[in-house]
Amino acid sequence: MAPLRIAHVSDFHFRRWTRFHERLQDRLAALDFDLLAMTGDFSAHPRDWRWVARLIRRFVRPFRPPLGCYAVPGNHDAVILSQQFGADAVRFLRNESVRIEPNGHVIHLAGTDDSWRSVADLPKTLAGCRDGHPTILLSHVPSTIHHLPDDIVDLVLSGHTHAGQWRIPWFGSVTVNDRISRAQTHGLHRIGRRWLHVTAGVGTSGPFNFRLNCPPEVALLTLRTHRGAPAANASTCQITVPRRAHHSREGGCG
User: Fold this and answer.
1) Omega before 169 within 30 of 0, i.e. cis
2) Nearest to 93 by CA among 160, 152, 36
3) How confident is the model at residue 162 (pLDDT cuts 50, 70, 90)?
4) Residue 53 falls inside a structural domain
5) CATH number at residue 109
6) Assuming Cys at both sites, which of 30, 76, 176, 181 could form a disulfide with 41, CB separation 3.0 to 4.6 Å?
7) In this structure, what DSSP letter does residue 182 have?
8) Which domain holds residue 58?
9) Which of 210, 254, 213, 212 is nearest to 236 (CA)?
């Protein structure tokens, strides 16, 4: 199978449209990808769902990847937010899966609802994925990988952690914010027979809305078949933003 390229972004925490989001669009437009995956927390506050829905549409408008744009909700997103989209701009996956066919090969793309509100349903999400084809799971929280059946899911894409949002050299993430190890709060990891990719995301959340040594990023994952099983690698594209446009400080996030 030819490589499958997935652009992975997460945790916008939209408050308003800024120059930062225009730069983010430019960086994403410069990448060559087959599918756009967005793993939740579009909102800063759930009550802003109407405004956030408009901003999501504005953000994805320039992109028409051949396999589509997919998303799952996060714990900051109102339930009604995902109901504002059909398959035209962004397809939200809420405890369901779809079949995509890159180069004629079948892959299941599944997505869970928000586990923080206890509405995630893994058995329902993966019900149609037991036919031996590879499965990619979008889940806002990375710890979902520890609750999966043994025989399903090859790659999990997550956000939520912001890679700690604050990172200290030789220590890593100041906060973990999920039931995973500190090392797993960012990047690509092999866990058992599966891959987990956790992006640092692009936005910030309180109580201190800025990043320290952890710039926002867009990740590009390339999937190949290796000895009959999917293998993955990831590269990241850091986004440098004027401080007035977004509370961010430059630095490494690896």
Assistant:
1) no
2) 36
3) very high
4) yes
5) 3.60.21.10
6) 76
7) G
8) 4-238
9) 254
Distance CA 190, CA 133 (A): 19
pTM over 0.85: yes
In a domain, 246, yes or no: no
Give residue 129's identity as a one-letter amino acid code.
Answer: C
41 in a structural domain: yes
Phi-psi region for residue 246, left (φ > 0), alpha (ψ -120 to 50) or beta? beta
Tokens of 87: 């398959």
Domain count, the chain: 1
Residue with tokens 């700690």: 164
pLDDT number for residue 244: 30
Tens digit of each residue's pLDDT (9 = 90 or more) over 209-238: 889 889 999 999 999 876 555 666 766 655
The per-residue pLDDT for range 28-86, each reduced to its tens digit, is: 999 999 999 999 999 999 999 999 999 999 999 999 999 999 999 999 999 999 999 97
Question: What is the DSSP pairing of strand 172-173 with strand 4-9?
Answer: unpaired
> Which pair of structure tokens corresponds to residue 105?
């090969």
